[in-house]
Amino acid sequence: MTSSSPSSSSSSPSSPSPSPSSPPSFPSKSKTPATTAAGFIKAIESGSKHLLIKRFTLRYPEQKLKFVGDGYQFDPKRAVGIAGLRGRHILYHDKCTGCQLCAITCEGIAEAIGMVKVDEQWKHNKKGIMPQIDYGKCVFCGLCVDACPFYALFMTNDYELSSFTKEHLIYTPAQLAIKPRYSGDVEIKIDDHGATHHG
Amino acid sequence: MSSEADQNNNRNNNCMIISNEFNKNTIDTATTFSPPNSRQHLAVVSNSSSSSRPPSPPPARTVGPPGSSTALRTKEPEPPVFEKGIAGEISANFGQMVQIIFIKPLRIKVAVEPSNIIKVATFLRDNLGFDHAESVAGTDYPKEDQIEVIYHLGSYSREDLAGQVLSIATRTNRDDARLPTLINIYKSVEYHERETFEMLGVYFEGHPRNERFLLPEDWADIPPLRKEFRIKGR
Amino acid sequence: MEDLEDRINESQKMGMQIIKESDDDRLMTLSVGPQHPGSGHFRFVVKLDGDYIVHCDPDPGYVHRGEEKMTEYRNFIQNIPHLERPVIHDSTNITYSYSLAVEELTGIEVPRRGQFIRAIASELNRQVYTLYWLAIYGIFLGHSTMFMWPTGDRELFIDLLEALTGARVTHAFNIPGGVRNDVPNGFKDRCLRQISYYEKRLKEYEDIFYNNPLVRQRTEGVGILTKEDAIRLGVTGSVLRASGVPYDIRKAEPYDVYNEIDFKVQYMKTADSFARAYVPFLDMRESCHILRQLLDKMPEAGEVRAKLQANPRGPPGEAYRRVESGRGSLGYYIISDGTPKPYRVKISVGSFRNMLALPHLLVGAKMGDMPVIYWALNYWPVEADR
Amino acid sequence: MATVPEEFRFGNFLASIIWIILIVIVVLTLVILPLTFVILFYVPLPPVNGEVLTPYLFLTSVVDPTRTLPIVKYLIHQTPFKVVVFPGFVFAAIIAAATIFVERKFLAKMQLRVGPLYAGVWGVSEGILQLAADGLKVISKEILIPSGADKPIFWAAPIAFVATAAAVVALIPVAPGWVVSNTNVGLIAVFAILGFFPLIALLFSWASNSKYPFIGGLRALHQMIAFEIPFILSALSVVILAGSLNLTQIATSQHPFWFILFLPISAFVFFISSLAELERVPFDLPEAESEIVAGWLTETSGMIYGLIQLGSYLKVYALSALFVILFLGGWSGPLIFPPQLGPADAIPLEKVLTLQGLYNPVTVNAIFWFLVKTIGIIMLMLLPRGISPRIRIDILLHTGWYKLIVLAFVNMFVALALIYAGVLGPGGSLSLH
Known about the structure:
- The complex is a heterotetramer of chains A (199), B (234), C (386) and D (433).
- In chain B, 28% of the residues lie in helices and 20% in strands.
- Chain B is built from five helices and seven strands, in the order αααββαββββαβ.
- Chain B has helices at residues 2-18, 36-47, 81-94, 117-128, 190-200, and strands at residues 98-104, 107-112, 132-141, 146-154, 165-173, 178-180, 203-205.
- Chain C has a three-stranded antiparallel β-sheet with strand order 1-2-3. In chain C, strands 6-7-8 form a three-stranded antiparallel β-sheet. A two-stranded antiparallel sheet of chain C has the order 4-5.
- Chain C has a single domain, classed as Cytochrome-c3 Hydrogenase, chain B.
- By secondary structure, chain C is an alpha+beta fold.
- Chain C starts with a helix and ends with a helix.
- Chains in contact: A-C, A-D, B-C, C-D.
């Protein structure tokens, strides 16, 4: 009764792996330890072994993770996104036409985007309106980027947006145009002694 | 192109659902009938290899090259045989009491009158092996002044029914929404029916606890999933 | 199995007897939650006779957000970010079945590579969820190391998902018609390396937790849910599989590419809390196996996303699609009336269905077994409330 | 903009520091110096080194370093010093504090995280000041008393908890002659005092007027009573072998062979029982947070919680020291310290620096070995917290009443057999005295 023998796990290592190049490296065993003492000794061994294994804590403010690419982008021609972190947006003023598609998309999601008037003269932006994003409401889903057909609104790797007041969370078009500087260089390194975050 | 035909077929069916009226057999379900014996024979043949070993995969239902499309989307113009057999068995037993609304791969929807639902559900449980309810969904149709409550039934005990979901729908009047409960047949509907009561105001006769479940204790408004309840500001 | 039945009879007899003998003065009413560390956003009122629970009444709804009502105001794409809020740790799976249902309604075909990426994200997210669940199960048993290790290993999977989807928890990655973006460069190698590391870690988990005699002592034979009861109550996911029913949506109704994947449904027959705790673990191990195959079979190049119109809409109709999430079957029942917004969305979640087993198992159990039984049900309060 | 802090000005900062210095000087000249003189004039001072210590001599000793050491030596042999500082409260409290820090770091390492990090020197000793920071936080927190609580008991219980723990500490000898209270019934006194703890837990949980503390208090009572008996029985076999209840004599009587060689099962039972007595993992049922919130500590807040934590870590020290005395030979160990720290004919200042006259190699050696063993036992007590879950109350009671008592008896009979066979005990073949 106490011996739990999941009928399937015993057979899984022997089952023919469809990808012979990568068989499961560790056959699954689920045997009850022979005695109580053996189980305790196994547990103590497993626990004390970790005193020698490297820790994988990321010491965040001192270390920062390295991300793939420059943030999430979207290619309207191929209608597919480009992988990257969905952080703060970046707005290219020379591309934005003030079409409001991003704001319309956001209407049903977070209502974070509002169109505001800017003091700039662009031929392609007759109305002179551009998105202003309230990061107190934004959920960073990136669907506004998907909606932009003019390569004007992308997302960046900048995720440190905390501020003391709510007003500071509202980013005007001018603030959104600034390219953030993000210098994360820590990557996960996995070796025999465990996984670590390595700078 | 088969998918286009599908769409048309689908649309016809679905239009039917929305403008569904009981007692009026608008779809010719007679074509889907087949004798129960032949259905069971089919079922046994198609699944006899897998029924002995529990963890083995159920028979593949996909037709055509693997992965070219999802399992559900490769539909034959006519309803699949196995599902047709089940629907046929129901129809054979209840005749005009049960109305087959659609038969799709792995999905069957039938509609019954509230007075017959207990009889039909008992038959489904005892004779066909649908042993649990996955969800109970209520939908409000203000134009028709009706509320539809749909039970999605599945089966754990019968291997060949593993992927099947049989939906059994019934409708009640909006103003005095009352339905007989299925809790004595399917214990698993207990919380779902309770949720439907508070979300749509359908009183389930015989249910031990028609009371608040998910909403706040001080909720003093109409049931929120009725269409006339509007979220503020929208 | 006779032994098992004896135990059930014994415990049920005990529970019944206590109810009969006790008068109300003897009973102590305890409110477990919502401020109790062992409940989450959930409350169940238990009545104690000595150390035995004689009555249990679940009271969910503390995080009810009306997701089903909210969907009626947004179009099919806009629904995605808020639909993953009920269970952000499993957010790929909860949008998976939604996407499948919308695809069925609107008739969108997903490209083959997109299907593979979806499945990969789904399996990675299953690991993330199950590790989180396991961590909490560890701390519920007072095993603080089992809280820290899975939490740390989960971080590695979150990093992988972050590279894939761009967000750490709320991915908003599945979309009707495919996935949002293609995999980044070097993703496959990184994934494979991590899986082999992770399988080593799973062995450590087994040593320190599952084979620990004290864990066995606490979980084995506790809270037995027989196969008949499991079927009758309609539980799903690991709870069902622990009761001896090899039911997995990935096998029963293979969606996308799962019919090409060779895997076993993990299940156990002991039907106790240990089985319910061990089946997710076996699932994680099997999920590694699935991930390897998915990465191996994924086409090298191709479209990942079908081109959508701005507001996808389909003919009036209804669809009910399910996927196997970390907590079992997760189904969406969507009725469309031909407009870009759904007419009605019903989310049928595993947590809500498993909640029915909670009073069934707790009555007659000891108070000390409460966290062991409760969290082994794989119950996620936020998801149940929706 | 209320959230933005006031601007920092260096001038204000300097001014505040100067104010503090000024106030300290004023208080020193007006209060402390007169008070010192009054005490020195009116309190009769004892003789040191054959001559009567006068206020004049006492003050000149500050100037003449050679006179400092005799006074220090005199002072540290007085009872108040022993009670307050060395084998008594402060010493135990320092070890308790170190235990908390080591426990956190040790567990963190086992669980692949870093533990306390920011309070301390970055890169060298991270988090070493964390305990001080936590203590400050706990002191500055408001103490909330639940409505309907029995206030006198609610206030008295944490103080009684620390006092009781300190009373146990007072009975523990750390070196020959270094014990606060050297009674002949030391072991019985220890168990008698330990018997207060379930009472305090129950009283406090009752006084909290809350359900979870009450369940926790009852659990504490059950657990401690269940483990009291194997606890005492396992120590009884030590008493049989040593022939004494005095803890110092028990320690010295195992001079060549430690009792753990003859009584391994008793030592095991004693260790398990002391884990249960301390409410440590896997026996932390009275504080099981996932079942009964925080057990009998649910309603504690602020310094009440701090005091109970302090008391429980004092108990950790006391019980591991007791284990060392009963089974590991107390302070016995090879002499590794030099007989003198410096040459005998040194200049006065060097004499002071090398602590001549004060330094006793035997005592220092004894304290060293005692500490080494005690810290080892404490680490052993910390280990289960990383590897084992909490056990259930019925399994716990079953373990206590059925298994441990039987085991304790088994080894007691072994001890009796050894004595009757003439191997051990007074006049035994293996005893040297």
